[in-house]
Amino acid sequence: MEPHDAGMEAAERAESASRRTHEIAERLTRLATDRRSEVGDLRSARRHAEEAQRRAEDSLRRAVAGHERAARSHERAAQVHEQAARRGLGDVVEHERQAERHRRDAQADHDEAALDRERTDWTGHDGATPAEAGT
């Protein structure tokens, strides 16, 4: 799975969990006024939905961390290739080419991490559940 795909899937799970939590919160409000006997079931469902959202948000945070680790690895590989080129070890032109490729890959990973961080803006990363944020 491509790193970009993992971040997107985590974001989609977080968004889905957020929507489901909102739906359950709204249903809880409607049904609580109409039928007291189902309130316990709805609260339980709401807790499950909130837990699913937390897991999705955790997955998204792990995707960010993974992108940042990959970026650091690419940056270090670029430094090694640059040092080898400066010292004249092996094929200098190839080391320079590889260093540039690693720099581009590092930037791409930093960009993916930034996109994943932006996705957390709509997943309730401030600690409030969507039900709390929306009510």
From TrEMBL:
Chain positions covered by the region annotation Disordered: 1-135
Highest taxon listed in the record's lineage: Bacteria
Basic and acidic residues bias (residue ranges): 1-124
Name this polypeptide is given: Colicin import membrane protein
